[in-house]
Protein backbone atom coordinates (compact mmCIF):
# COMPACT_ATOMS: atom_id res chain seq x y z
CA UNK A 1 0.00 0.00 0.00
CA UNK A 2 1.35 3.38 -0.93
CA UNK A 3 0.34 6.32 1.18
CA UNK A 4 -2.27 8.57 -0.44
CA UNK A 5 -0.70 11.06 -2.75
CA UNK A 6 -0.54 14.60 -1.59
CA UNK A 7 -1.44 16.75 -4.51
CA UNK A 8 1.44 18.96 -5.60
CA UNK A 9 -1.21 21.47 -6.56
CA UNK A 10 -2.32 22.50 -3.10
CA UNK A 11 -3.48 26.08 -3.40
CA UNK A 12 -0.64 28.43 -2.56
CA UNK A 13 -1.09 30.31 0.67
CA UNK A 14 -0.93 33.86 -0.50
CA UNK A 15 -1.69 35.58 2.75
CA UNK A 16 1.66 36.99 3.85
CA UNK A 17 0.44 37.66 7.37
CA UNK A 18 -0.24 34.60 9.49
CA UNK A 19 -3.24 35.14 11.76
CA UNK A 20 -1.36 34.54 14.97
CA UNK A 21 1.29 37.23 14.58
CA UNK A 22 -0.95 39.67 12.76
CA UNK A 23 -0.34 43.32 13.66
CA UNK A 24 -3.34 45.28 14.92
CA UNK A 25 -5.88 45.83 12.16
CA UNK A 26 -5.69 49.03 10.16
CA UNK A 27 -9.44 49.21 9.88
CA UNK A 28 -11.73 47.66 12.47
CA UNK A 29 -15.43 47.86 11.72
CA UNK A 30 -17.88 46.86 14.44
CA UNK A 31 -21.53 46.18 13.63
CA UNK A 32 -21.81 49.06 11.25
CA UNK A 33 -25.19 49.73 9.66
CA UNK A 34 -25.92 52.30 7.03
CA UNK A 35 -29.24 53.88 6.12
CA UNK A 36 -30.46 55.71 3.05
CA UNK A 37 -33.44 57.37 4.64
CA UNK A 38 -35.43 54.52 6.14
CA UNK A 39 -33.78 51.83 4.01
CA UNK A 40 -31.03 49.90 5.71
CA UNK A 41 -28.38 49.38 3.04
CA UNK A 42 -25.79 47.76 5.30
CA UNK A 43 -26.65 45.35 8.10
CA UNK A 44 -24.28 45.28 11.05
CA UNK A 45 -21.05 44.75 9.16
CA UNK A 46 -18.14 43.59 11.29
CA UNK A 47 -14.70 43.03 9.82
CA UNK A 48 -11.04 43.84 10.31
CA UNK A 49 -8.80 44.96 7.48
CA UNK A 50 -5.09 44.42 7.89
CA UNK A 51 -2.29 46.76 6.92
CA UNK A 52 -0.32 46.16 3.73
CA UNK A 53 -2.84 43.67 2.54
CA UNK A 54 -5.11 43.93 -0.47
CA UNK A 55 -8.71 43.29 0.53
CA UNK A 56 -11.33 42.77 -2.16
CA UNK A 57 -15.07 43.34 -1.72
CA UNK A 58 -17.13 41.25 -4.09
CA UNK A 59 -20.83 40.70 -4.52
CA UNK A 60 -23.68 41.30 -6.95
CA UNK A 61 -24.77 44.83 -7.90
CA UNK A 62 -26.57 46.60 -5.10
CA UNK A 63 -25.14 44.36 -2.39
CA UNK A 64 -23.66 47.31 -0.52
CA UNK A 65 -19.98 46.78 -1.27
CA UNK A 66 -19.50 50.28 -2.69
CA UNK A 67 -21.61 51.83 0.02
CA UNK A 68 -19.49 50.08 2.63
CA UNK A 69 -16.28 51.26 0.96
CA UNK A 70 -17.57 54.80 1.02
CA UNK A 71 -18.32 54.63 4.73
CA UNK A 72 -14.59 54.16 5.32
CA UNK A 73 -13.72 57.73 4.24
CA UNK A 74 -17.16 59.12 5.09
CA UNK A 75 -17.83 59.88 1.45
CA UNK A 76 -21.47 59.06 2.08
CA UNK A 77 -21.70 62.12 4.32
CA UNK A 78 -22.35 64.26 1.27
CA UNK A 79 -25.50 62.33 0.39
CA UNK A 80 -28.40 63.94 2.22
CA UNK A 81 -30.63 61.75 4.37
CA UNK A 82 -28.06 59.08 5.16
CA UNK A 83 -27.11 57.78 8.59
CA UNK A 84 -24.55 55.43 10.12
CA UNK A 85 -24.80 53.25 13.20
CA UNK A 86 -22.00 51.27 14.78
CA UNK A 87 -18.29 51.93 14.80
CA UNK A 88 -15.57 52.15 12.19
CA UNK A 89 -12.10 52.37 13.72
CA UNK A 90 -9.08 53.36 11.71
CA UNK A 91 -5.81 53.01 13.65
CA UNK A 92 -7.95 52.42 16.71
CA UNK A 93 -9.99 55.62 16.48
CA UNK A 94 -13.67 55.72 15.58
CA UNK A 95 -14.05 57.89 12.49
CA UNK A 96 -17.73 58.51 13.24
CA UNK A 97 -17.19 60.12 16.64
CA UNK A 98 -18.39 63.71 16.77
CA UNK A 99 -15.45 66.05 16.40
CA UNK A 100 -13.60 63.89 13.92
CA UNK A 101 -12.22 66.10 11.15
CA UNK A 102 -13.54 64.61 7.91
CA UNK A 103 -11.00 66.55 5.88
CA UNK A 104 -8.16 65.01 7.91
CA UNK A 105 -9.73 61.59 7.57
CA UNK A 106 -9.93 61.83 3.80
CA UNK A 107 -6.31 62.86 3.62
CA UNK A 108 -5.37 59.60 5.33
CA UNK A 109 -7.88 57.47 3.46
CA UNK A 110 -7.54 58.12 -0.26
CA UNK A 111 -10.08 57.07 -2.83
CA UNK A 112 -10.13 56.12 -6.50
CA UNK A 113 -13.54 56.09 -8.17
CA UNK A 114 -15.19 53.76 -10.63
CA UNK A 115 -15.29 56.34 -13.36
CA UNK A 116 -12.04 58.25 -13.66
CA UNK A 117 -12.68 61.84 -12.64
CA UNK A 118 -9.68 63.99 -13.51
CA UNK A 119 -10.24 67.70 -12.95
CA UNK A 120 -10.44 69.80 -16.12
CA UNK A 121 -6.94 71.05 -15.45
CA UNK A 122 -3.46 70.10 -16.64
CA UNK A 123 -1.93 66.74 -15.78
CA UNK A 124 0.47 68.47 -13.39
CA UNK A 125 -2.28 70.45 -11.66
CA UNK A 126 -4.37 67.33 -11.16
CA UNK A 127 -1.63 65.62 -9.18
CA UNK A 128 -0.59 68.84 -7.45
CA UNK A 129 -4.16 69.59 -6.34
CA UNK A 130 -4.16 67.58 -3.12
CA UNK A 131 -0.68 68.84 -2.24
CA UNK A 132 -1.74 72.42 -2.77
CA UNK A 133 -5.00 72.35 -0.83
CA UNK A 134 -3.38 70.54 2.06
CA UNK A 135 -0.32 72.78 2.01
CA UNK A 136 1.96 69.78 1.69
CA UNK A 137 4.67 71.27 -0.51
CA UNK A 138 6.76 74.14 0.77
CA UNK A 139 8.41 75.05 -2.51
CA UNK A 140 7.85 74.73 -6.23
CA UNK A 141 10.62 72.21 -6.60
CA UNK A 142 9.21 70.12 -3.77
CA UNK A 143 5.81 70.23 -5.43
CA UNK A 144 7.25 69.19 -8.78
CA UNK A 145 9.20 66.42 -7.08
CA UNK A 146 6.13 65.04 -5.35
CA UNK A 147 4.13 65.18 -8.57
CA UNK A 148 6.85 63.27 -10.42
CA UNK A 149 7.15 60.73 -7.64
CA UNK A 150 3.41 60.10 -7.60
CA UNK A 151 3.18 59.76 -11.36
CA UNK A 152 6.06 57.24 -11.24
CA UNK A 153 4.31 55.30 -8.48
CA UNK A 154 1.20 55.17 -10.62
CA UNK A 155 3.28 53.97 -13.61
CA UNK A 156 2.24 56.93 -15.68
CA UNK A 157 5.35 59.12 -15.65
CA UNK A 158 7.03 57.88 -18.84
CA UNK A 159 3.81 58.42 -20.79
CA UNK A 160 3.21 61.99 -19.67
CA UNK A 161 6.57 63.48 -18.62
CA UNK A 162 6.84 65.59 -21.78
CA UNK A 163 3.27 66.93 -21.63
CA UNK A 164 2.58 67.67 -17.98
CA UNK A 165 1.00 71.02 -18.85
CA UNK A 166 -1.54 69.61 -21.29
CA UNK A 167 -5.13 68.88 -20.32
CA UNK A 168 -5.71 65.73 -18.32
CA UNK A 169 -8.89 65.20 -20.32
CA UNK A 170 -6.82 64.40 -23.43
CA UNK A 171 -5.48 61.22 -21.79
CA UNK A 172 -6.96 57.81 -22.57
CA UNK A 173 -9.39 56.22 -20.13
CA UNK A 174 -6.74 53.98 -18.60
CA UNK A 175 -4.27 56.83 -18.31
CA UNK A 176 -6.93 59.00 -16.68
CA UNK A 177 -7.55 56.32 -14.09
CA UNK A 178 -3.84 56.00 -13.34
CA UNK A 179 -3.73 59.80 -13.09
CA UNK A 180 -6.48 59.63 -10.49
CA UNK A 181 -4.45 57.02 -8.62
CA UNK A 182 -1.37 59.28 -8.80
CA UNK A 183 -3.51 62.14 -7.52
CA UNK A 184 -4.66 60.05 -4.58
CA UNK A 185 -1.11 58.83 -3.83
CA UNK A 186 0.38 62.32 -3.94
CA UNK A 187 -0.93 63.21 -0.48
CA UNK A 188 0.50 59.96 0.90
CA UNK A 189 -2.57 58.33 2.42
CA UNK A 190 -2.24 55.19 4.57
CA UNK A 191 -5.28 53.55 3.09
CA UNK A 192 -6.32 53.49 -0.55
CA UNK A 193 -9.96 52.72 -1.32
CA UNK A 194 -10.63 51.71 -4.91
CA UNK A 195 -14.21 51.54 -6.13
CA UNK A 196 -14.22 49.26 -9.21
CA UNK A 197 -11.20 51.12 -10.58
CA UNK A 198 -10.95 49.06 -13.75
CA UNK A 199 -14.58 48.39 -14.58
CA UNK A 200 -14.64 50.95 -17.39
CA UNK A 201 -11.27 49.95 -18.87
CA UNK A 202 -10.13 47.57 -21.59
CA UNK A 203 -8.23 44.38 -20.63
CA UNK A 204 -4.76 45.86 -21.14
CA UNK A 205 -5.51 48.98 -19.11
CA UNK A 206 -7.10 46.72 -16.49
CA UNK A 207 -3.96 44.63 -16.30
CA UNK A 208 -1.87 47.75 -15.72
CA UNK A 209 -4.14 48.82 -12.87
CA UNK A 210 -3.91 45.36 -11.33
CA UNK A 211 -0.11 45.36 -11.56
CA UNK A 212 -0.19 48.76 -9.95
CA UNK A 213 -2.33 47.52 -7.07
CA UNK A 214 0.12 44.70 -6.54
CA UNK A 215 3.12 47.02 -6.49
CA UNK A 216 1.44 49.48 -4.09
CA UNK A 217 0.61 46.80 -1.56
CA UNK A 218 3.89 47.09 0.32
CA UNK A 219 3.26 50.73 1.21
CA UNK A 220 -0.51 51.00 1.51
CA UNK A 221 -3.51 49.24 2.89
CA UNK A 222 -5.66 48.71 -0.17
CA UNK A 223 -9.35 47.95 -0.30
CA UNK A 224 -10.73 47.27 -3.75
CA UNK A 225 -14.35 46.83 -4.76
CA UNK A 226 -14.81 44.74 -7.85
CA UNK A 227 -17.55 42.83 -9.59
CA UNK A 228 -14.94 40.93 -11.57
CA UNK A 229 -14.16 37.77 -9.61
CA UNK A 230 -11.04 36.93 -11.59
CA UNK A 231 -9.75 40.34 -10.66
CA UNK A 232 -10.44 39.75 -6.99
CA UNK A 233 -8.68 36.39 -7.23
CA UNK A 234 -5.68 37.91 -8.99
CA UNK A 235 -5.02 41.01 -6.91
CA UNK A 236 -6.31 40.42 -3.43
CA UNK A 237 -5.08 38.57 -0.36
CA UNK A 238 -8.41 38.62 1.39
CA UNK A 239 -11.91 38.72 0.04
CA UNK A 240 -15.17 39.78 1.60
CA UNK A 241 -18.39 38.62 -0.03
CA UNK A 242 -21.39 40.91 0.37
CA UNK A 243 -24.97 40.01 -0.35
CA UNK A 244 -28.08 42.15 0.23
CA UNK A 245 -26.26 44.50 2.57
CA UNK A 246 -24.78 41.70 4.66
CA UNK A 247 -21.24 40.47 4.93
CA UNK A 248 -21.66 36.79 4.13
CA UNK A 249 -18.10 35.61 4.28
CA UNK A 250 -14.67 37.11 4.80
CA UNK A 251 -11.56 35.02 4.44
CA UNK A 252 -8.29 34.52 2.63
CA UNK A 253 -8.93 34.95 -1.09
CA UNK A 254 -7.76 31.45 -1.97
CA UNK A 255 -10.21 29.97 0.48
CA UNK A 256 -13.11 32.09 -0.72
CA UNK A 257 -12.51 30.91 -4.26
CA UNK A 258 -11.63 27.28 -3.64
CA UNK A 259 -13.30 26.24 -0.41
CA UNK A 260 -15.81 28.81 0.79
CA UNK A 261 -17.55 28.04 4.05
CA UNK A 262 -20.91 29.39 2.96
CA UNK A 263 -23.11 27.88 0.29
CA UNK A 264 -24.10 31.37 -0.89
CA UNK A 265 -20.46 32.31 -1.47
CA UNK A 266 -19.85 29.16 -3.40
CA UNK A 267 -22.89 29.78 -5.58
CA UNK A 268 -21.72 33.29 -6.30
CA UNK A 269 -18.06 32.57 -7.05
CA UNK A 270 -18.98 29.66 -9.27
CA UNK A 271 -21.32 31.92 -11.21
CA UNK A 272 -24.62 30.39 -10.24
CA UNK A 273 -26.07 33.84 -9.62
CA UNK A 274 -24.90 37.41 -9.69
CA UNK B 1 -55.88 58.76 -51.35
CA UNK B 2 -54.18 55.87 -49.66
CA UNK B 3 -53.27 56.18 -46.03
CA UNK B 4 -49.57 56.55 -46.87
CA UNK B 5 -50.15 59.27 -49.43
CA UNK B 6 -52.28 61.19 -46.94
CA UNK B 7 -49.59 60.91 -44.32
CA UNK B 8 -46.97 62.20 -46.72
CA UNK B 9 -49.24 65.09 -47.68
CA UNK B 10 -49.94 66.12 -44.09
CA UNK B 11 -46.27 65.84 -43.27
CA UNK B 12 -45.20 68.10 -46.13
CA UNK B 13 -47.95 70.53 -45.17
CA UNK B 14 -46.51 70.84 -41.68
CA UNK B 15 -42.95 71.16 -42.93
CA UNK B 16 -44.06 73.99 -45.21
CA UNK B 17 -45.93 75.69 -42.36
CA UNK B 18 -42.83 75.47 -40.16
CA UNK B 19 -40.71 76.97 -42.93
CA UNK B 20 -43.16 79.84 -43.38
CA UNK B 21 -43.17 80.54 -39.64
CA UNK B 22 -39.37 80.73 -39.66
CA UNK B 23 -39.41 83.16 -42.57
CA UNK B 24 -42.04 85.32 -40.84
CA UNK B 25 -39.94 85.39 -37.69
CA UNK B 26 -36.78 86.29 -39.56
CA UNK B 27 -38.25 89.02 -41.79
CA UNK B 28 -38.41 91.75 -39.10
CA UNK B 29 -34.91 90.85 -37.91
CA UNK B 30 -33.55 90.99 -41.44
CA UNK B 31 -35.27 94.34 -42.06
CA UNK B 32 -33.89 95.84 -38.85
CA UNK B 33 -30.39 94.66 -39.73
CA UNK B 34 -30.75 95.85 -43.32
CA UNK B 35 -31.82 99.39 -42.34
CA UNK B 36 -29.32 99.72 -39.53
CA UNK B 37 -26.44 98.59 -41.73
CA UNK B 38 -27.43 100.47 -44.89
CA UNK B 39 -28.19 103.73 -43.06
CA UNK B 40 -25.46 103.37 -40.49
CA UNK B 41 -22.61 102.65 -42.87
CA UNK B 42 -23.17 105.97 -44.68
CA UNK B 43 -22.74 107.96 -41.49
CA UNK B 44 -20.01 105.87 -39.93
CA UNK B 45 -16.41 107.03 -40.15
CA UNK B 46 -13.35 107.27 -37.94
CA UNK B 47 -14.50 110.62 -36.69
CA UNK B 48 -17.56 109.01 -35.15
CA UNK B 49 -15.28 107.22 -32.69
CA UNK B 50 -12.79 110.02 -32.09
CA UNK B 51 -14.75 113.27 -32.17
CA UNK B 52 -17.20 114.94 -29.84
CA UNK B 53 -20.73 115.82 -30.93
CA UNK B 54 -21.02 119.04 -32.96
CA UNK B 55 -23.71 121.65 -32.37
CA UNK B 56 -26.78 121.68 -34.57
CA UNK B 57 -26.07 122.89 -38.09
CA UNK B 58 -22.45 121.80 -38.14
CA UNK B 59 -21.90 118.64 -40.11
CA UNK B 60 -19.69 115.78 -38.85
CA UNK B 61 -18.70 115.17 -35.28
CA UNK B 62 -18.88 111.90 -33.39
CA UNK B 63 -20.00 110.21 -30.22
CA UNK B 64 -16.73 109.84 -28.34
CA UNK B 65 -18.30 110.89 -25.05
CA UNK B 66 -21.19 108.46 -25.44
CA UNK B 67 -18.89 105.58 -26.38
CA UNK B 68 -16.73 106.16 -23.33
CA UNK B 69 -19.86 106.64 -21.24
CA UNK B 70 -21.38 103.33 -22.32
CA UNK B 71 -18.11 101.53 -21.66
CA UNK B 72 -17.93 103.06 -18.19
CA UNK B 73 -21.56 102.30 -17.38
CA UNK B 74 -21.30 98.67 -18.46
CA UNK B 75 -17.96 98.41 -16.63
CA UNK B 76 -19.55 99.75 -13.44
CA UNK B 77 -22.49 97.40 -13.82
CA UNK B 78 -20.21 94.39 -14.39
CA UNK B 79 -18.01 95.26 -11.40
CA UNK B 80 -21.07 95.23 -9.21
CA UNK B 81 -23.03 92.39 -10.80
CA UNK B 82 -20.36 89.76 -11.50
CA UNK B 83 -19.29 89.09 -7.90
CA UNK B 84 -22.83 89.32 -6.50
CA UNK B 85 -24.32 87.28 -9.35
CA UNK B 86 -21.69 84.54 -9.33
CA UNK B 87 -21.72 84.16 -5.56
CA UNK B 88 -25.52 83.97 -5.41
CA UNK B 89 -25.38 81.44 -8.23
CA UNK B 90 -22.94 79.35 -6.18
CA UNK B 91 -25.26 79.59 -3.19
CA UNK B 92 -28.31 78.52 -5.19
CA UNK B 93 -26.54 75.50 -6.64
CA UNK B 94 -24.75 74.45 -3.45
CA UNK B 95 -27.75 74.84 -1.17
CA UNK B 96 -30.45 73.95 -3.66
CA UNK B 97 -33.66 72.99 -1.94
CA UNK B 98 -33.10 75.24 1.06
CA UNK B 99 -35.68 77.93 1.64
CA UNK B 100 -33.26 80.79 1.03
CA UNK B 101 -32.03 79.28 -2.24
CA UNK B 102 -35.58 78.80 -3.50
CA UNK B 103 -36.46 82.34 -2.49
CA UNK B 104 -33.35 83.70 -4.21
CA UNK B 105 -34.14 81.82 -7.41
CA UNK B 106 -37.70 83.13 -7.35
CA UNK B 107 -36.46 86.67 -6.74
CA UNK B 108 -33.96 86.40 -9.59
CA UNK B 109 -36.58 85.15 -12.01
CA UNK B 110 -38.96 87.92 -10.98
CA UNK B 111 -36.25 90.56 -11.27
CA UNK B 112 -35.42 89.23 -14.72
CA UNK B 113 -38.98 89.95 -15.82
CA UNK B 114 -39.23 93.43 -14.29
CA UNK B 115 -39.43 96.13 -16.99
CA UNK B 116 -36.15 98.00 -17.18
CA UNK B 117 -37.85 101.36 -16.62
CA UNK B 118 -38.92 100.12 -13.18
CA UNK B 119 -35.33 99.27 -12.36
CA UNK B 120 -34.47 102.78 -13.51
CA UNK B 121 -36.98 104.20 -11.03
CA UNK B 122 -35.48 102.08 -8.28
CA UNK B 123 -31.98 103.38 -9.02
CA UNK B 124 -33.42 106.90 -9.22
CA UNK B 125 -34.93 106.56 -5.76
CA UNK B 126 -31.82 105.01 -4.23
CA UNK B 127 -28.96 106.75 -5.95
CA UNK B 128 -30.27 109.97 -7.50
CA UNK B 129 -32.82 111.49 -5.13
CA UNK B 130 -30.68 111.36 -1.96
CA UNK B 131 -27.85 113.25 -3.71
CA UNK B 132 -30.09 115.46 -5.85
CA UNK B 133 -27.78 114.63 -8.73
CA UNK B 134 -27.89 112.39 -11.79
CA UNK B 135 -24.70 110.39 -11.91
CA UNK B 136 -22.77 107.68 -13.73
CA UNK B 137 -22.90 105.75 -10.45
CA UNK B 138 -26.70 105.67 -10.50
CA UNK B 139 -26.68 104.52 -14.13
CA UNK B 140 -24.18 101.77 -13.34
CA UNK B 141 -26.33 100.72 -10.39
CA UNK B 142 -29.44 100.44 -12.57
CA UNK B 143 -27.64 98.35 -15.20
CA UNK B 144 -25.95 96.26 -12.50
CA UNK B 145 -29.28 95.43 -10.89
CA UNK B 146 -30.45 94.22 -14.30
CA UNK B 147 -27.35 92.06 -14.73
CA UNK B 148 -27.37 90.33 -11.35
CA UNK B 149 -30.28 87.94 -11.95
CA UNK B 150 -29.03 86.97 -15.40
CA UNK B 151 -25.57 86.10 -14.09
CA UNK B 152 -26.89 84.41 -10.97
CA UNK B 153 -29.20 82.08 -12.88
CA UNK B 154 -26.59 81.29 -15.55
CA UNK B 155 -24.01 80.49 -12.89
CA UNK B 156 -26.44 78.31 -10.98
CA UNK B 157 -27.46 76.31 -14.03
CA UNK B 158 -23.88 75.81 -15.21
CA UNK B 159 -22.69 74.72 -11.77
CA UNK B 160 -25.43 72.13 -11.62
CA UNK B 161 -24.13 70.73 -14.90
CA UNK B 162 -20.66 70.05 -13.45
CA UNK B 163 -20.47 66.28 -12.83
CA UNK B 164 -20.78 65.29 -9.19
CA UNK B 165 -17.75 63.05 -9.69
CA UNK B 166 -15.50 66.13 -9.77
CA UNK B 167 -16.83 67.28 -6.41
CA UNK B 168 -16.30 63.82 -4.94
CA UNK B 169 -12.78 63.74 -6.38
CA UNK B 170 -11.91 67.00 -4.68
CA UNK B 171 -13.53 66.06 -1.36
CA UNK B 172 -11.76 62.67 -1.39
CA UNK B 173 -8.44 64.52 -1.54
CA UNK B 174 -9.23 66.36 1.64
CA UNK B 175 -10.78 69.50 0.20
CA UNK B 176 -13.32 71.38 2.27
CA UNK B 177 -16.64 72.10 0.64
CA UNK B 178 -15.77 75.72 -0.08
CA UNK B 179 -12.39 74.69 -1.44
CA UNK B 180 -13.97 72.12 -3.74
CA UNK B 181 -16.40 74.72 -5.07
CA UNK B 182 -13.89 77.47 -5.69
CA UNK B 183 -10.94 75.40 -6.88
CA UNK B 184 -12.63 72.69 -8.94
CA UNK B 185 -16.34 73.15 -9.58
CA UNK B 186 -16.39 76.86 -10.38
CA UNK B 187 -13.32 76.67 -12.67
CA UNK B 188 -14.91 73.75 -14.49
CA UNK B 189 -17.99 75.87 -15.20
CA UNK B 190 -16.04 79.09 -15.78
CA UNK B 191 -16.08 79.20 -19.60
CA UNK B 192 -19.84 78.84 -19.57
CA UNK B 193 -20.16 81.51 -16.90
CA UNK B 194 -17.98 83.86 -18.95
CA UNK B 195 -20.31 83.27 -21.90
CA UNK B 196 -23.27 84.17 -19.70
CA UNK B 197 -21.55 87.34 -18.48
CA UNK B 198 -20.71 88.41 -22.03
CA UNK B 199 -24.30 87.91 -23.14
CA UNK B 200 -25.55 89.82 -20.09
CA UNK B 201 -23.17 92.66 -20.99
CA UNK B 202 -24.52 92.73 -24.54
CA UNK B 203 -28.03 92.86 -23.18
CA UNK B 204 -27.52 95.77 -20.79
CA UNK B 205 -25.35 97.77 -23.20
CA UNK B 206 -28.48 98.21 -25.31
CA UNK B 207 -30.68 99.47 -22.46
CA UNK B 208 -32.02 103.01 -22.62
CA UNK B 209 -34.87 103.21 -20.16
CA UNK B 210 -32.91 102.61 -16.92
CA UNK B 211 -30.44 105.34 -17.90
CA UNK B 212 -32.94 108.10 -18.72
CA UNK B 213 -33.20 109.37 -15.18
CA UNK B 214 -30.10 107.86 -13.60
CA UNK B 215 -27.04 108.53 -15.78
CA UNK B 216 -29.15 111.08 -17.68
CA UNK B 217 -26.98 112.39 -20.49
CA UNK B 218 -24.06 114.72 -20.92
CA UNK B 219 -23.14 116.81 -23.91
CA UNK B 220 -19.58 117.01 -22.73
CA UNK B 221 -16.84 114.52 -22.19
CA UNK B 222 -16.95 113.25 -18.63
CA UNK B 223 -15.48 110.36 -16.71
CA UNK B 224 -16.60 111.64 -13.34
CA UNK B 225 -18.69 108.99 -11.60
CA UNK B 226 -20.58 111.64 -9.61
CA UNK B 227 -21.64 113.57 -12.73
CA UNK B 228 -24.21 112.71 -15.39
CA UNK B 229 -22.66 110.75 -18.22
CA UNK B 230 -23.51 110.23 -21.88
CA UNK B 231 -24.38 106.81 -23.26
CA UNK B 232 -24.82 105.44 -26.75
CA UNK B 233 -28.44 104.50 -26.22
CA UNK B 234 -29.64 107.76 -24.70
CA UNK B 235 -27.66 109.68 -27.31
CA UNK B 236 -29.27 107.66 -30.09
CA UNK B 237 -32.67 108.37 -28.56
CA UNK B 238 -31.96 112.10 -28.33
CA UNK B 239 -30.67 112.25 -31.89
CA UNK B 240 -33.42 110.10 -33.34
CA UNK B 241 -36.27 112.27 -32.03
CA UNK B 242 -34.56 115.49 -33.08
CA UNK B 243 -35.65 117.30 -36.26
CA UNK B 244 -32.14 117.50 -37.75
CA UNK B 245 -30.88 115.34 -40.65
CA UNK B 246 -27.29 115.37 -39.35
CA UNK B 247 -28.39 114.03 -36.01
CA UNK B 248 -30.50 111.33 -37.63
CA UNK B 249 -27.42 110.11 -39.48
CA UNK B 250 -25.48 110.05 -36.23
CA UNK B 251 -28.26 108.03 -34.62
CA UNK B 252 -28.07 105.43 -37.39
CA UNK B 253 -24.31 105.19 -37.00
CA UNK B 254 -24.70 104.76 -33.27
CA UNK B 255 -27.28 102.03 -33.79
CA UNK B 256 -24.90 100.19 -36.10
CA UNK B 257 -22.13 100.37 -33.52
CA UNK B 258 -24.41 99.02 -30.80
CA UNK B 259 -25.69 96.19 -32.98
CA UNK B 260 -22.12 95.30 -33.92
CA UNK B 261 -21.18 95.24 -30.23
CA UNK B 262 -23.98 92.79 -29.49
CA UNK B 263 -22.93 90.68 -32.50
CA UNK B 264 -19.30 90.61 -31.36
CA UNK B 265 -20.39 89.61 -27.86
CA UNK B 266 -22.47 86.74 -29.21
CA UNK B 267 -19.58 85.60 -31.39
CA UNK B 268 -17.17 85.69 -28.45
CA UNK B 269 -19.66 83.68 -26.43
CA UNK B 270 -19.99 81.09 -29.18
CA UNK B 271 -16.25 80.77 -29.69
CA UNK B 272 -15.65 80.32 -25.97
CA UNK B 273 -18.39 77.71 -25.74
CA UNK B 274 -17.10 75.83 -28.77
CA UNK B 275 -13.56 75.82 -27.41
CA UNK B 276 -14.75 74.45 -24.11
CA UNK B 277 -16.71 71.71 -25.79
CA UNK B 278 -13.63 70.70 -27.78
CA UNK B 279 -11.57 70.68 -24.60
CA UNK B 280 -14.06 68.46 -22.87
CA UNK B 281 -13.98 66.09 -25.85
Descriptive key words:
heterodimer; A: 274 residues; alpha/beta; Rossmann fold; four-stranded antiparallel sheet; 10 helices; 33% helix; B: mainly alpha; MetI-like fold; 2 domains; 11 helices; 78% helix
Characterise the protein shown here.
- The complex is a heterodimer of chains A (274) and B (281).
- With 274 residues, chain A is α/β, with parallel strands linked by helices.
- Chain A has one domain: P-loop containing nucleotide triphosphate hydrolases (Rossmann fold).
- Chain A has 10 helices and 10 strands.
- Chain A has a 6-stranded mixed beta sheet, with helices on both faces. In chain A, strands 2-1-4-5 form a 4-stranded antiparallel beta sheet, covered by helices on one side.
- The longest helix of chain A is centred in the middle third of the chain and has 14 residues, at 140-153.
- The radius of gyration of chain A is 20 Å and the shape is globular.
- The model of chain A is unreliable at 1-16 (pLDDT under 50).
- Chain B has 2 domains: 3-43; 50-280, Orthogonal Bundle (MetI-like fold).
- Chain B starts with a helix and ends with a helix.
- Chain B is mostly helical and 281 residues long.
- The interface between A and B is medium-sized, with 27 and 21 residues.
* Number of separate structural domains of chain A: 1
Overall shape of chain B: it is globular
Give the name of the CATH superfamily of the largest domain in chain B.
MetI-like
Q: What Rg of chain A do the Cα atoms give?
A: 20 Å
In short:
The complex is a heterodimer of chains A (about 270) and B (about 280). Chain A is α/β, with parallel strands linked by helices and about 270 residues long.
Q: How are the elements arranged and paired?
A:
The complex is a heterodimer of chains A (274) and B (281).
Chain A: E1 27-36, E2 39-49, E3 54-58, H1 65-71, E4 82-90, E5 93-94, H2 102-108, E6 109-112, H3 123-133, H4 140-153, H5 157-160, H6 173-186, E7 191-195, H7 203-216, E8 221-225, H8 229-235, E9 238-243, E10 246-252, H9 253-258, H10 263-269
Parallel strand pairs in A: 3-8, 3-9, 6-7, 7-8
Antiparallel strand pairs in A: 1-2, 1-4, 4-5, 9-10
Helix pairs in contact in A: 3-4, 3-6, 4-6, 6-7
Chain B: H1 3-43, H2 46-50, H3 64-94, H4 99-113, H5 116-128, H6 136-161, H7 164-172, H8 177-205, H9 209-212, H10 232-240, H11 245-280
Amino acid sequence: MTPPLVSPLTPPVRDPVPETTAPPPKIDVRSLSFFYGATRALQEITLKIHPNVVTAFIGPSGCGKSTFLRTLNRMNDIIPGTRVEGEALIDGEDIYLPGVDVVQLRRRVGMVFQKSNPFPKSIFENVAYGLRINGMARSRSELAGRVEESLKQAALWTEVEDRLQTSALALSGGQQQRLCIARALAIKPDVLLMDEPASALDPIATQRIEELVYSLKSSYTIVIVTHNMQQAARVSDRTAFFWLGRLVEYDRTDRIFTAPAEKLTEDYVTGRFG
Amino acid sequence: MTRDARRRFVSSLFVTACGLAVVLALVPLALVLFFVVSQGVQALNIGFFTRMPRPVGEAGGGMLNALVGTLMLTGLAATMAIPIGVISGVYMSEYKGTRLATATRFAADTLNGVPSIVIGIFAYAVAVLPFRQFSAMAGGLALGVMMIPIIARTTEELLLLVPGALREGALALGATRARAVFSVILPAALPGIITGVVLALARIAGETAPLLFTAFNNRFFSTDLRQPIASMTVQIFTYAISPYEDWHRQAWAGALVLVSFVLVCSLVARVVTARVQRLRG
